[in-house]
Amino acid sequence: MSSPALAALAALPQADLKSIFTTDPDRLSKFTLTQGPIRFDWSKTHLTDGLFDGFLKLAEEKGFAGHRDALFAGEAVNNTEGRAAEHPAERGEGNADSVARAKMFHARMRALIDAIEGEALGPIRHILHIGIGGSALGPDLIVDALGGDGGRYDVAIVSNVDGTALERAISRFDPEATLIAVASKTFTTTETMLNAASAINWMVEAGVDDPYGRVIALTASPDKAIEWGVDETRVLPFAESVGGRYSLWSSIGFPAALALGWDAFESLLEGAAAMDRHFRLSDPRQNAPLIAAFVDQYYARVLGCQTRALFAYDERLRLLPSYLQQLEMESNGKSVTRDGTPVDGPTAPITWGGVGTDAQHAVFQLLHQGTILTPVEFIASIEPGHALDPAHHRALLVNCFAQGAALMRGKDNAADPARAYHGNRPSTTILLDDVTPEALGALIAFYEHRTFANAVLMGINPFDQFGVELGKEIARSIEAEGPKGFDPSTMALIDLALGGV
Ligand code: F6P
């Protein structure tokens, strides 16, 4: 670890969680914070007053306040691509011109939704949303979390180029009652364009009149969408300065706005805007995304934990782990700083997780007794998402809180080591009042800003993703020119499975 600031933090004595509430009786009030509908509890982590002060100093040294101001001012914080990162503008926060442009695009989306609801495109019952990565994970999470009662339309989100994904979706849809939303910031992504072409073919084969008349494009490249065949009136643009994995607030959120209703979509944006203001305006000592980033930095960079695990103790949030994998790993899985020099330590750990209580019966063994220290994050809601016997929700929450206590407390058993629990294992708990559009908007914005705060503390740019390009380039070259000059293993695999292509 070559950073002096991190070395100073590492030199601080490490607390033992088993006795931490005895040595620091005030830590519950010190290390919990309620922001709108969300309560954050870091009291069962190793955060101490000394570490907190050290991280505040690190944030100052790294120019945190300046970077945050630059983000909200719409400056080119994505320095390697010379672009701003204007997802907050989609929520009404940030540079005034960008906010005005986002509002105009939202008004256009709303008008099209009104037209669809008025059956201008026919009697639509099914929405086939085709996109991948940031153009799929956000809408999928929102529709799944908030549309549990079926929503107003039947929505399928298809991302994988594997035809099985599209085939499964369309097998349950009536082509005459389906709207295709092609979601792609660039409108060039191979998987999306192939799936979109196959979806059009499905409509053609089913005898649908004017299949292109049923296509909506959600994109920052309207010209490409028009060139592909989408009528200009059904292109819903968003700004180039909104990154793919930060784009669910833009027209990429179209299936959520249509299926859940415009009011719900607006509430989602308002919840996120409240978190934007909290992040932008509150003191670093009371700033949830920044404090969460301190905890992340401590485990990933000071203690060298290579993963962090999160478990949604709420079925409505079951897609949150995969959403956050893209957000955190595509943003902060980097090896160089903003100026291109090598980083001074580890960057983003691997984000993984699942849902409770299922995960307790699958992976928690390792968390309690394995040799790898993994900081855990629990996310739960006070209100249930169902009307069944309250015993269900009670059992869910009791299990969630019991796991955090067990990780921290452990259990000695000198006579039988196989039954001993180490304890001193950290967890954070994030408790929502309920999984409402506002709370979900605030929660996702919290994670976005936490990811940004982590990047600032590491001196990296979280808004590019060049690491995803090389594999795509090689795949394109194989398609275009056939396999040439690869290692024997790759040549043999191509030969065996594709007959040399
Ligand atoms: O491959 C990574 C990526 O560029 C993501 O960052 C992005 O969300 C996804 O591909 C989809 O890109 P697009 O929206 O341009 O189709």
Automatic annotation (TrEMBL):
<comment type="pathway">
    <text>Carbohydrate degradation; glycolysis; D-glyceraldehyde 3-phosphate and glycerone phosphate from D-glucose: step 2/4.</text>
</comment>
<keyword id="KW-0963">Cytoplasm</keyword>
<protein>
    <recommendedName>
        <fullName>Glucose-6-phosphate isomerase</fullName>
        <ecNumber>5.3.1.9</ecNumber>
    </recommendedName>
</protein>
<dbReference type="GO" id="GO:0048029">
    <property type="term" value="F:monosaccharide binding"/>
</dbReference>
<dbReference type="GO" id="GO:0097367">
    <property type="term" value="F:carbohydrate derivative binding"/>
</dbReference>
<comment type="similarity">
    <text>Belongs to the GPI family.</text>
</comment>
<dbReference type="GO" id="GO:0005829">
    <property type="term" value="C:cytosol"/>
</dbReference>
<dbReference type="GO" id="GO:0006094">
    <property type="term" value="P:gluconeogenesis"/>
</dbReference>
<comment type="pathway">
    <text>Carbohydrate biosynthesis; gluconeogenesis.</text>
</comment>
<dbReference type="InterPro" id="IPR001672">
    <property type="entry name" value="G6P_Isomerase"/>
</dbReference>
<dbReference type="InterPro" id="IPR035476">
    <property type="entry name" value="SIS_PGI_1"/>
</dbReference>
<dbReference type="InterPro" id="IPR018189">
    <property type="entry name" value="Phosphoglucose_isomerase_CS"/>
</dbReference>
<dbReference type="InterPro" id="IPR023096">
    <property type="entry name" value="G6P_Isomerase_C"/>
</dbReference>
<keyword id="KW-0324">Glycolysis</keyword>
<feature type="active site" description="Proton donor">
    <location>
        <position position="330"/>
    </location>
</feature>
<keyword id="KW-0413">Isomerase</keyword>
<dbReference type="GO" id="GO:0051156">
    <property type="term" value="P:glucose 6-phosphate metabolic process"/>
</dbReference>
<dbReference type="GO" id="GO:0006096">
    <property type="term" value="P:glycolytic process"/>
</dbReference>
<keyword id="KW-0312">Gluconeogenesis</keyword>
<dbReference type="InterPro" id="IPR035482">
    <property type="entry name" value="SIS_PGI_2"/>
</dbReference>
<dbReference type="InterPro" id="IPR046348">
    <property type="entry name" value="SIS_dom_sf"/>
</dbReference>
<dbReference type="Pfam" id="PF00342">
    <property type="entry name" value="PGI"/>
</dbReference>
<feature type="active site">
    <location>
        <position position="361"/>
    </location>
</feature>
<feature type="active site">
    <location>
        <position position="472"/>
    </location>
</feature>
<dbReference type="GO" id="GO:0004347">
    <property type="term" value="F:glucose-6-phosphate isomerase activity"/>
</dbReference>
<comment type="function">
    <text>Catalyzes the reversible isomerization of glucose-6-phosphate to fructose-6-phosphate.</text>
</comment>
